[in-house]
Amino acid sequence: MRKMPSWQVSLIPFGVLTLSLVVVIKIFGADALLGGSQVCLLLASAVTAAISMFAYKNSWEILEFCILDNIRAVGSAILILLLIGAIAGTWMVSGIVPALICYGLKIIYPAIFLVAACVISALVSVMTGSSWTTIATIGVALIGIGIAQGFDPGWTAGAIVSGAYFGDKISPLSDTTVLASSSSGTPLFTHIRYMMITTVPSLAVTLIVFLVASLMHPSVEVSQTDEFSESLRNTFHITPWLLVVPILTGVLIVRKTPAILTLFCAAVMAAITALVFQPQVIWAVVHPDLPASAYAGLSFWDACKGVTVTLYGSTAIQTGNAAIDSLISTRGMTGMLNTVFLIICSVTFGGVLAGSGMLKSLTELFARLAHRAVTLVGATVGTGFICNVVTGDQYISILLTSSLYKKLYERKGYESRLLSRAVEDSATVTSVLIPWNSCGMTQATVLKVPTLEYLPYCFFNILSPFMSVFIAAIGYKIFRRKPEE
Q1: Is 57 left (phi over 0), alpha (psi -120 to 50) or beta?
Q2: How far is the CA of 480 from the CAs of 81, 188, 248, 411, 414, in angstroms?
Q3: pLDDT in tens, 261-319
Q4: What letter does residue 480 receive in the DSSP assignment?
């Protein structure tokens, strides 16, 4: 490299990215992730490369090497994302997730409704790995229950969002969790275990607040939960035996089995479970245009085709209940391709930033400002939130924040899991609090509650960034390793 760009010049690509994302989000809204945001990242990458090559005389070979090196680093994350898509399909079609919902709905009592809404959303989100899916399905039902019980929609939406993002944050099936761990170079389950230090206290405080609010609210008897459970039971064979798969998956996680092996085993176990307990659902996947009454048994070829489609493709089982239909519809591995597309474009941008020296220039600026763990974590958390504000997307925020601080954490001698936790405590959970962010727009539309109306009640999302800084301030389990310099 001939000359290091100044930090002012290094901010130009971020300005280009921000302006282009504003235009794309204005045009496409929540659909910006289908390709528009990726184009913005490639445009910012091109601007970065142009500045580096023409203004600082750096060769394309250096930039290309850094791009390929970044893509190579996220190869395992891409495979994990595809396996997550396979699990999303098999765990739904096998009846595992429906069973968890049915059993979870039994704890819905008016006196603890907000707590139950938060816990159920958390459980479903942990098992599916998706806050969006949780909110768009069980969240919609819980909003209706809350309205029937006289709860303010803002409170109910806050409980749902808090639980859904707790589950999204700690689930090994979550793409944001995989992104945060892989982009910082932290093993997935190491990342999840370390997050518990900040995540559990945040959730505990959140549940206490919701419990007090529920107890102070007059109860109203409703039957919507029974109707929801009945629709699921009419479609799936609900039995406690279905819980064996998540239990065995939990055992694999506790035994620290590599993430790829754990996810692969979970998908295979669920596929076998689907054949044993839900043959009529597998048949419906193969014959979506035929009525359920036409089912007369599952042939070998239908079984093979149904399981294969469940693993990789879209499934849509018609139950006559719109909320249930939305819940049990899955997209399999193909549903993760847009995320893979986004990852490749994001790491391309990060690679060009690294190869041009702009990333190092910004890192050195941050290094001069961050002298202790608390200031470093505080800067990371603040950057994650600001990226959510200016880029309008949590995935981009996670990848950009990790790229900016990864080398700095190494130089300061801190373990990578401190970075991955700080990124999750900010970029993942605060995205839904911003009205123009893709998460904020989507959840407000799905729940029919404006972002600013539910924001004050998303206690978990608000507490998480502050909890991350607080734990760093007291120095609890902040581990150091030998600095590089």
Answers
A1: left
A2: 30, 19, 34, 11, 5
A3: 888 998 999 999 999 999 998 998 888 888 877 888 888 999 999 999 999 988 877 77
A4: B
